[in-house]
Amino acid sequence: MNTNGTPENVRKELAALLPRLRRFARNLTRNPHDADDVVQMALERGLAKLDQWRRDARLDSWMFKIVRNVWIDELRSRGRWGKILTGPEAGENVGHSPLDRDSDLLSVQAAMARLPEDQRTAVSLVLVEGLSYKEAAEVLDVPIGTLTSRLARGREALQAMLAPGDAG
Amino acid sequence: MSISDETLMAYSDGELDASARAAVEAAMRADPEIGRRVAQYREQREKLRAAYAPELAEPVPDRLLAALRDGGSGEKSPRPQSMRSRWRYSLAASVVVAIGLAIFAWQRPALVQERGGALVASGELENGLSDSLSGDPSAGDVRIGVSFLAKSGEYCRTFTLRESAGVACRRGERWLIHDLTQLAEGGQRSEAGASQSGDYRTASSMLPPAILSAVQAQIVGDPLDRAGEQSARSSGWRPR
Lengths: 168, 240
What we know:
The complex is a heterodimer.
Chain A: H1 6-29, H2 32-48, H3 59-82, H4 103-114, H5 117-128, H6 133-140, H7 144-162
Helix pairs in contact in A: 1-2, 1-3, 2-3, 3-6, 5-6, 5-7, 6-7
Chain B: H1 5-12, H2 18-30, H3 32-52, H4 62-70, H5 94-107, E1 112-115, E2 118-121, H6 123-131, E3 142-149, E4 155-161, E5 164-171, E6 174-182, H7 191-197, H8 203-206, H9 209-218, H10 226-234
Antiparallel strand pairs in B: 1-2, 3-4, 4-5, 5-6
Helix pairs in contact in B: 1-3, 2-3
């Protein structure tokens, strides 16, 4: 790895990405505290293995993938621990956005939080973060057809929740 | 002719190649309903984009900026003194562990003693490790997180003790302290705070990530459930 100044450029790029990483992590975890924890761990993991990042790959896609992997690891450990520790699931805590002033916008987040994880991440990556189907499929490690089908189901469910009288 | 929702969605998202696009457009000319569905996808996309745009303007917490500033510099340059220890802890940093244990032992001589170069639990900590079950209301300052069988073949338990959290494993008649770290300030500081505030977080997530990863690295199977703990306790924490 070229250590001569390159990491600093990447750090700048990562700094610019931070708001999007947090936003994606919130959609993923449905909890702002978990989201920031996950982003922090993902930053550390990403910086530690920066040499594995291919320069031709998008840095945002690469980091989204790390964010998701960190969260999966965290869920795995909680799943084990959850067997003997009490407390409602983190996922119960929805509605993370301070958008109370706009009920329409709030309902988008609330509707998203009700989607199953696979649909929610697909919708989040493509519609919120603006990744292509191919990029989103790579982040999620699924074939593009799987991504497309998750996205379609997620969008159908969202449509039903956001505009129940207008479902096509 | 019918066009699937997935195809219309892909069209609205600009994901179709030229020939598929032309087919959709021809179908739209023939059937206004198809155009209406495409418009619905586009409206939905715009609605989501708009709903989530304000989050980008939120200030980024300092700790994330610090993680970005300090992370990944481990081998090339010493980490700054001001660095916050909470997330930085690495199992590889055995020197840090040793220093931490030494300070801990020095601060709490009644709870940790040195035996043949290893640190072992004593007093209240030893009693808690030997007698308490996970999640029990804490007697004193010691609280047990989870118990598990480690790859070493020993039973190990996580514990919190005031501002510290650690992993101790049963060897012979003693609890050897393997990992120890400081609990963070604020949210992760105390499990007592969790119940007081009705925090939804489980006790496990109150443990510092360093301890969680230590457990993950060592655990065989799943943590013991309550019956498993009771059984292990009655056997003196000696695996059968």
